[in-house]
# Entry
Amino acid sequence: MSSTTKTIMITGGAGFIGSHVVRLFVRTYPHYHIVNLDALTYAGNLENLRDIESAPNYTFEKGDIMDEKAIHALFEKYQFDAVIHLAAESHVDRSILDPLAFVRTNVLGTASLLNVCRNNWKDHMEGKLFYHVSTDEVYGSLGEVGFFTEETPYDPRSPYSASKASSDHFVMAYFHTYHLPVVMSNCSNNYGSHHFPEKLIPLMINNIKNNQPLPVYGKGANVRDWLWVEDHARAIDTIFHKGKVGDKYNVGGFNEWKNMDIVHLLCRIMDKKLGRPEGESAKLITFVKDRPGHDLRYAIDATKLNRELGWKPSLQFEEGLEKTVDWYLQNEDWVRDVTSGNYQKYYDEQYVKR
Ligand code: NAD
Ligand code: DAU
# Structure
């Protein structure tokens, strides 16, 4: 997509990755108007965007991607040139507790959004773009070796990944059937600031700080490929502007870690920062019942994105993890706000009652 003036709807912009994408676009492209459409579920938080909320090229609209009528009205109001779609239910454990919520938002919500785009753009598709942000989990689970490439067949195994895989298929169906201009990326695990503390890294940071048990699923042998969230936001910027319509790009950190090793590393970092004796926080590690259908290993081959569009990750994991820990220690109010209320109910259901 060329970089002349345009109006872009970013869905899910109040969430973890979405807020980093909104911030990057608002700051980098003052001639773009960024409209953040978010339903503000438990995972959406306007505090994440406090620093840019009064920028002249930023607008927030509260709304649900499943509400076709309301989204259509926003298209009439803003005449969007592009949509960058991140809104989703994103947590695997929650998808095991309530799979249909994931079908509604991730499948029906994405299909509704595609439909609104098609209806509004059908007579002038030129210069329009629907960018779908997806996950490496659609590819399933790897053994000890090998990588996911863009050609790896889909093999989702959790309700979350099945719903994301389905949304990916709808995106490609709209491309082939209606010639809707689309592009898609499938990214590995992100980490960084504003990450909701239901996910491994922020949950462990929060529990270490509060001297709570550190719940490691199974034996802690599962492997994930971790990417600094700002590097993902940069990848989205790159693909949005330079990606080929109808194509997909894998995004990853070339940075595989076993869960156990991450938890130990976090314990070491936090012992130092909190002035605890070495080895103190690691005593909190507690092995708990494994996640049902727990995918063993994810590893992304992001060669295509590097070779064709020139993107590569910028930050070393250890450095990024230190920065992340610092952010959580300096933003206790943010953590307190998001872990009050319903968080405790979810935490009890997931970790205490099992
Ligand atoms: P998140 O859960 O932090 O944020 C999701 C956002 O979507 C929230 O602001 C929420 O309020 C909003 N939302 C949810 N349902 C909505 C609805 N029906 N209508 C409008 N808004 C709604 O998620 P995240 O971790 O930032 O992930 C963003 C996207 O990136 C998702 O599509 C996810 O599948 C994908 N992804 C995430 C990761 C990761 O490591 N977190 C990796 C690869 C891909
Ligand atoms: O791979 C990309 C995906 O990464 C995204 O699409 C998802 O939205 C995102 O949530 C993430 O999914 P994971 O399931 O890999 O992330 P999570 O942080 O939930 O878990 C990471 C690993 O840590 C996984 O092997 C499960 C394990 N784990 C997780 C939690 C929350 C634990 O051992 N204990 C925990 O308490």
About this structure: The mean pLDDT is 97. The longest helix spans residues 99-121. The domain at 6-191+227-254+298-315+343-352 is CATH 3.40.50.720 (Rossmann fold). The first strand starts at residue 6 and ends at 11.
